[in-house]
Sequence to fold (174 residues):
Amino acid sequence: MPLKEIECLKCGTILKKRVGEAINLSENPKAVNDIIEGKINFSYCPKCKTKIEHKSHVLLTYLDPPRWIWLVSRKYQNPKYCEEFFTTIVPPGSVDFIEQDMVFVDFGTPCESLAYVIENKLPQTSKDWLELGKIHTGSEAVDCYKNALKINSALTEAKSLLNEEMDKLKTYQL
Fold:
């Protein structure tokens, strides 16, 4: 991991940290717990205690079968960012031969619903579908909220988030 200088945006303190850009989960399966517990890609400023993200995204990889999971800072969570990311940041052609997914996280905050993405499993309860929808955007989020509502049609938070996400999709498609 390269040593990088990271600046605290609140007080300007400079930290020198080893910053990982990718985690190979085939070689390091124990990292899954750290990822779900929110223990990657951030530090606290030693001066003002502000949480500092090291990078805007971290790549999780599997070798067999080849699979990439992009963890992206929640501040970028919108359908347009996702679309642009896969057309400008991701290596050209990689989406044609490597299964890829993008989820949005608050680095430094635990996220149990990441387990569904990392382990490639489907949620079973409406609450699990709801939480999974919160880390996606666009049609992926819409599908999760719809699945939550199929299980529990009275889930008002899922209805609200579904409507919000559909409005975002309409806005970005204009």
User: Anything to note?
Assistant: Residues 156-173 form the longest helix (18 residues).
